[in-house]
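Example record

The entry below shows one chain as it appears in the dataset: sequence first, then structure tokens.
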Amino acid sequence: MQVQQVRLYSSKNGKENAVPEISIDNMYPVQEEIHSMSYKKVMRNVPQSIVLLTSAMFQTDTNSWLKRGVTCSSLLSVSLKPPILSFCLNRPSRMHDLLLQSQQFAINILGKHQAKLVDLFSSPAQDGLDQFLGIPHHVSKEGLPVLFDTPVLLCKTHCAHNVGDHSVWYGMVTGTLHENKMVEPVLHYYGSYHDIGERILTVPRCVFTQGPVISRLQIAWHCIKRHGLEGSLYCMKERFQKQFQSKEKDWHETIAMFYLKKVSIALKAEQNSEQTFEEFLQKNNNLVNLNDHLLHHYSVELISSPEAKEKYVPPDQKPFNSLH
């Protein structure tokens, strides 16, 4: 199998750089039937969001637009600067041929209320029949069919190449529609359609919840030993900015105080001013799992709120009266 040469934009200088041709012939010889079946079985565990890919081209012989749509479960964001996405299409296909001519397309992000469209556009398009007949949609100024009240990415073809039995297409995003609308996507998982389900309870992403906990604990321990609990918050923020190059948006006031209060409780229980941080941590090794304890004291709604990020708010689940 040969992979066609692809030209992509370099993020460093904005100029085109050729990606070397690569060949994977005889790299890993496997029995094709077994490899494909095993591959499919494992990939069924990967939920894939389903979108509607649409394109159109004006036909001068009929003085009309040829419009096509096909469901796609391989959409990926490739680059932000410039904004480039990718998807895969089976070959041969009518959409593949249309994209070669039109060089433009739209990505419609389907919501679960549009799940019936998945099967409709999964079936092969028939000549002479309008796939969009009876489907609420409008035509963009570029001539692309887009669904009503649906988040849409408008794209120009950036490049394409063939890999195995599929073609990989890259699109430059040139515009968006309904970008502020939030939909509950349709997911393909284990051969059927699903919604995204319940939210998994996690602590907010901030400078405290990314990276080793021990280094954060050491800063809290140092600041309390030096300034006491009342004067330790400013010290901690200053140390974080220097040590982790953290910015204001990464700071979380309530989680900072959570660390300080937990370390302060442990220090009071020890009452040993001569011990080192390593000795302190050895006796209080449960503090290593401090981020897991956070949701024992705070609800996800409160700890994730803008108010809790900007200023300290007391716990709404369990008070700070112990190490646990």
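Notes for this example: The chain is about 30% helix and 25% strand. The longest helix spans residues 253-270.
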